[in-house]
C-alpha cells in the first residue's frame, strides 16, 4: 500500500482515537513510514480528532529533520527511533489514555507482565493466554533525545515488542501498518483497563 493510502488510514485512525478521548487537549502523536529514509508525523499542537493529511509532515528517520520547516511533534525522536530499531514497523501511535497513564505510575517496576487474558492474542505472534506478555515502562523525560537513548539501550538487551509505557505520560505502540498498530493499541488498552480493574477489586 502506498504511503498516501496509509496516511488516509492513519487520519481515519486518529479520528477514532479522538472520539475515544485517547488523545485529549492536542496530546498524542501519530506517524507512518514512507520508506527506509522518511516518515510522516503529525504536526505539533493539532487536535488529533480532526487531523487531515495536510497536518502530517515528512521527517527524516535518521536525524528528525523536517524539510518543510514546520514543527513536528515533540516526541518525534521516539517515532524515528522505533523506525530505526524495527525495520518492519510501518506505523506508530502515541496516546494519553487514562488507563495507560495511571497504570504506568502504579507499577514501580521497569515492566508489567500480562498473563491469563484472552485479549493477549490481539497482538501479533501471541497465540495463547497462558504466555507472559511483558510491556516495558520508562520514566518520563522532557529530554526526548535522552529518553530515546534509554529506550534504545533497553531494546538492545530485552525484547521490546508492540509498545511501551512512559510513566505518567501514556502509551507508544506500533505495527507493520496502520491497521496492525490500531489493533495493538486497542488490545493493549483493553489489557491496561482489565489490569486496573483487577487491582482495584483486589484492594476491596
From TrEMBL:
| GO cellular component term of the entry, any | cytosol
Q: What is this protein called?
A: Methylthioribulose-1-phosphate dehydratase
Q: Is Magnesium tagged as a keyword? A: no
EC class name: lyase
Organism listed in the record: Phytobacter massiliensis
Q: What is its EC number?
A: 4.2.1.109
Name the source's superkingdom. Answer: Bacteria
Cofactor: how bound: Binds 1 zinc ion per subunit.
Kindly list the positions annotated as binding Zn(2+). 94, 96
Metal-binding as a keyword of this entry, yes or no, is yes
Matches recorded under Pfam families: Aldolase_II
Listed under GO biological process in this entry are:
L-methionine salvage from methylthioadenosine; pentose catabolic process
Q: In which pathway does it act?
A: Amino-acid biosynthesis; L-methionine biosynthesis via salvage pathway; L-methionine from S-methyl-5-thio-alpha-D-ribose 1-phosphate: step 2/6
**Which gene carries the instructions for this protein?**
mtnB
Name the SUPFAM superfamilies on file: AraD/HMP-PK domain-like
Class II aldolase/adducin N-terminal domain sequence ranges: 8-196
Amino acid at each position: 500500500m502506498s504511503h498516501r493510502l496509509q496516511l488516509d488510514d492513519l487520519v481515519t485512525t486518529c479520528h477514532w482515537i479522538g472520539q475515544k478521548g485517547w488523545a485529549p487537549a492536542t496530546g498524542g502523536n501519530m506517524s507512518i513510514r514512507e520508506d527506509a529514509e522518511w516518515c510522516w508525523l503529525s504536526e505539533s499542537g493539532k487536535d488529533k480528532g480532526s487531523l487531515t493529511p495536510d497536518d502530517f509532515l515528512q521527517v527524516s528517520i535518521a536525524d528528525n529533520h523536517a524539510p518543510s520547516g514546520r514543527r513536528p511533534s515533540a516526541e518525534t525522536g521516539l517515532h524515528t527511533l522505533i523506525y530505526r530499531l524495527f525495520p518492519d514497523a510501518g506505523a506508530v501511535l502515541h496516546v494519553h489514555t487514562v488507563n495507560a497513564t495511571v497504570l504506568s505510575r502504579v507499577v514501580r517496576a521497569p515492566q508489567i507482565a500480562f498473563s491469563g487474558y484472552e485479549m493477549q492474542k490481539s497482538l501479533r505472534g501471541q497465540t495463547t493466554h497462558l504466555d507472559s506478555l511483558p510491556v516495558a515502562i520508562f520514566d518520563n523525560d522532557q529530554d526526548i533525545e535522552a529518553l530515546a537513548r534509554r529506550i534504545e539501550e533497553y531494546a538492545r538487551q530485552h525484547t521490546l515488542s508492540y509498545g511501551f509505557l512512559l510513566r505518567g505520560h501514556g502509551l507508544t505502540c506500533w505495527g507493520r501498518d496502520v491497521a496492525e498498530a490500531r489493533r495493538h493499541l486497542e488490545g493493549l488498552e483493553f489489557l491496561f483497563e482489565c489490569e486496573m480493574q483487577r487491582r482495584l477489586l483486589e484492594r476491596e
